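Q: My labmate handed me this sequence with no annotations at all. I'd like to see what the chain might look like in three dimensions before we decide whether it's worth expressing. Could you predict it?
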Amino acid sequence: MNSELFFTIRTSLIVALGGFLMGFDASVISGVVGFIELEFALTKIQLGWAVASLALSSTFAMLVAGPLSQIVGRRKLLTWAALLYLISALGSAFAPDFVLLIAARMIGGLAVGTALILAPMYIAELAPPAQRGRLVSINQLNIVIGISVAFFSNYLILAWSQSDSAIVAYLKMDIWQWRWMLGLEALPALLYLVGLRFVPESPRWLIMKNRPDEALSVLTLVAGPTQAKIELTAIANSLSNNTSSDSLGIATLFSPTLHKVLFVGMVVAILQQITGINSVFFYAPMIFEQTGIGTDASFLQAVLVGLTNLFFTILAMLFIDKVGRRPLLLAGVSGIVVCMLMLAYGFDTARYTLPVNALSEFSEKADALASVAGQTFRSDVAFREAISNSAGAAWYTANEARLIQISVSLNSYLILFGILGFVASFAVSLGPVMWVLFSELFPNHIRALAISVVGLVNSAVSFLVQLVFPWELATIGIAGTFFIYGFFALVGLLLVAKFLPETKGMSLEQLEVELVKS
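A: Here is what I predict for the chain of 518 residues:
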């Protein structure tokens, strides 16, 4: 490995730590929801807010991060994001009530939105064309690693909290499980804050700010002295042919010359979230509990989701610059359609019967449950309503995992295969490819603003999906929810097949010529 490639990879890894924090911050809540629902006596919509509040503030951050980075620079804004991650982790861990927990989560959302926009954009502006797809995908890989670490740390904390260890009692891990889950994020946040001190500014941003000497120094570290001069000239020529980026408004993005790339960006941005990926990541233990495996096993299977996501993201990184963006998306979204319909079928065929001999286990509610025991229900919604009407909604919520565990009859292997297949299909396609495409589709002079806008749409859809998921489970059931996701995936597949161009192997300046009409 030559010194230029080593420098580029090292810098990309540091910048992509923002992705790790995003993945951890977003997915750690999956282990927290069950605890805070009981501790703060939350409704289903409030529970949705606990998860989706991060996406709401990240939506705002995505809108402003791109334009703001044009003013202060990519590196400085990423440093601010690292600080917000640290504040959010500590604030969430020590939150005394639900309102302050939401506030701390929303501070983290500002960091998530900023890092999601800037990390892949920075890496794309730094990386050579031949390695750009793979290097930009490092950010997605780190998101996936963050998700996996969050699932695994949640599982470990839950396991440790049930031990009789003196250190567990001293740290109050046995009563503060969810606080420890959230607070662990402070460690990688601090590491990110320190690591960014060793990252240079984006060379393309430096050229935009009429600082060519500094840009040439950075490009020399990336490509060597000869190639650096060639790239400097190409970037400068590209920018000189467009209006100064500082004077661009939102109307510029909707000009006829950008209609094609903006439409493709919007389709991919919506598709990535409307298929329900964050419902699976952020509510994984809740979903697995619906199969009747119990709380501990549901946390363990959530770890399996994270590992599957990690493996197939690495697979995507190996092929994204060889096979291309378009084939990966077509294959992956096809898999998502199949797996979502499989999950809808698996849960639709589930049956729920509370055994009569189980009433002794719930002696305090035995009389109330007597009229329900022995009846067979064709859906999780009907079962939930019957138990809640007999014993109370709060009691059902507190005992849901156990009630479903002893009552449900379904093909749990089909459900597990469907979820893992969905995660694998997403990880090899929409997960890494979307951010690579965002960094490639838009020309230099409008890239920051354009990625902010399509990122805003992506985050807004993510917020809505996360917010309504608990309500969907309670109202239309888990089978109907997955069927809706499958339908959206099918529509997205048809649009991708018709409109998505291939972008591999070309410089950002070449792509501008190919994709943007004169």
